[in-house]
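Let's sit down with a protein and look at its sequence and fold side by side. Which protein we use is up to you, so please pick one and set it down. Label the sequence line and the structure token line clearly, so we can match residues to local backbone shapes. Go ahead whenever you are ready, and we will take it from there:

***
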Amino acid sequence: MVTKSKWFWPAALLTAWFADFLFWGKAPGISFPIWITVALLIGFLLSWREGQRPSAWSVLLAVLIVLFSTVVAFRSNGPTVMYSILMAGGGIVLLAATFLNGHWLSYRIVDYVTNGLGVMWGAVSRPFISLSTPQALPAAGEAAPQSPSAIPSPENPASVELAAAGAKRSAIASRRRAAPVIRGVIIAIPVLAVFIALFASADPVFNAGVTQILNIEKLPEYLLRLILIIILGFALVGVYLHAILPAAKVERPDTSKAWLKPFLGFTETGILLGALDVLFIIFVTLQIRYLFGGSANISETGFTYSQYAVRGFNELVWVATLSLLLFLVLSTITRLESKGTRIAFTALIVLLMANVLVILASSLTRLMLYESTYGFTVMRTLPHIFIFWLGGLVVAAAVLELLQKRGRFGLALLIAVVGFSATLAVMNVEGFIVRKNVGRAMIGESLDVNYLSTLSSDAVPAMVKYYNDTTVPAKVHEALGLLLACRLQESQGQATRPWQSYHFGQANAVKLLEANAPSLNQIHLLGGSNLTYFTWEDQMIYCNALPNLD
């Protein structure tokens, strides 16, 4: 097929320039979903011009990418934004790898890795190929167009060499046509510079315009931005070409086949899994007795509840993660040559996964004990959510092993990763922390006001809700008022942001603060915007160093 790949370069460079326009020197906000959407639309438009029809699953994947990108414009919590950006970026790589075939639902873990690396290599190599080859390129799985004289046959043994020579001559001709243009630009630049200097010296109005346009002081910045635009545009050309005009047709992976030939005997694997199962059962028995048996059993060991809670949480999560990794490795390299060995392997794996679930329950219980003692933070809430998705992945591993569908674990892992990131975006982590910590304070526990002051605008709606709740104790109401008064003061001192940095979550927080300004302004804040303070219980308290509320 004759392609219109000449459009790939201007489209990619335009997309790269648009990224510079949206992001350079500006905080991320609505700009991120706008750019992601534009980049995807340009890809679909190029596909339409090439006559290439994307898979329906690719359309669904593109929608998911856009949804994750919008999180950046609604949430301010660092981990939530980071995971959403990773999901959008990873989704684009997956989309480029499976744009025409939609095979991403059938990938094994190794397929995700190899095809992701293939996209990265395409981003580097395909632009060079597009510049050095003729415009007539075959589509994936389609033979290159040939003239009758170029078709290999016994009667015409030199046809292949003739075709190759013709392609080489075409490529040389293309470079020769481009060479005068490049030479013309090189000659024109210094000549234009001389005449611009003369006109600028002759006319002050022209001089002012040239000075404003060129802005010599920012010339290094402009050069850097130009280089970044070219690099990004170069990579986008490769990604678009890899997605729309793949070098070869890719078959759907067979999830029932192992990607590596098994080489380890069942005896070795059985000994390893059996020993691990015995060890895990011993540990689980101790957990059931002490951690799930009440505080009296823990006291017998000489530990307090809080001491027992903080010990070993990370280690137990690692135990669960390594157990899943061990399942993947052993299920790939172990030879299961008879029905008996397959049944025994499945039984050992399912028993291991059952023990892992109890260990995860132990980890969650430890974390909940810690949170009940010291309150909720971002770094405690993220593992809290992660454990549930990790537990779901453990259950999926056991079910897939029972069904003899181990090759579908890659899809289960993808669902878990996407689900974890989506949960962070939907639940509003910092709003959850405010609700939990204020709830603890309402039953007499301490409230870490200083920690709440470090949260982003995501926490403001929950703070305002409790501030206006008449059932909240007076001291908690006063602390929330101080927090919100400080935030109102900070919002009034902030400079106006460009439209590219507009953030729905931050705008909603400012709107709520301004709606409660009449009552918040009664809290007399003193000092400048950087060292704002107030007097509370005869103490001078700074907004950036709020005390705990006991």
Summary: The two ends are 74 Å apart (CA to CA). The chain has three domains: 5-144+158-244, 266-404, 431-542. Strands lie at 533-536, 539-542. Residues 159-202 form the longest helix (44 residues).
